[in-house]
Amino acid sequence: YMAQPPNYVVPGTEGQVCKLQKANYGLKQAPRCWYLTLHQFLVGIGFERCVKEVCLYIKRVGESMVLLTVYVDDITITGNNNDDIEKACDELKQRFEMTDLRQLKSILGIQVDVKSNIVTMSQQGYVEVLLDKFNMVDCNPVSTPEVIGQVLKPSKLNPSQVKALNLPYRELVGSLQYLVTCTRPDIANAVRNLSKHLSCYDESHWKQAKRVLRYLKG
């Protein structure tokens, strides 16, 4: 339910409220309602949701296969038959107001380059944002994300001492984890080691985290 909008109150019903017929943008239940609406529509036009990856929908028509991925309201679609891909796009456009950006070039901060049979993904823009955010734009690049053979030792600081350092260590490690997940498996081991010390860290851990940024710059 919601209060009647200012200047739109129906005379004689000043003490009454309105009953919402659908989820408005910004309400806590809106994402859930959108997902259910989209899911039901996709199933209705022949797509099946992947059991292991619930953001992936698959539609098979004979030897043809159409793959559709969903991230909130960002949708990508591909397959091995252009006619079936276009048909699925047309059905989506008929049901929802949407913008067709054609060839995928960027999604969720990931740049996508498709050439022949090769798909290259990059997050250089995201890396540059991190370098600026953590004041590492002018840092000296290094050739490895961590020093070979170096083992990060547990910090001996107590919680109040860690807090007094005022280092955005967890924020940086979390940002690096996103890179690992998407496009940079080469920093996975370094980030894994950094993640062991999220509850208690010191300057040595912060220095190692910044080294990963130096590696990414190179």
From TrEMBL:
Pfam family, one: RVT_2
Residue stretches making up the Reverse transcriptase Ty1/copia-type domain: 1-146
Transmembrane segments: none
Matching InterPro entries: DNA/RNA_pol_sf, RVT_2
Residues forming coiled coils: none
Name the record gives this protein: Reverse transcriptase Ty1/copia-type domain-containing protein
Record organism: Aphanomyces stellatus
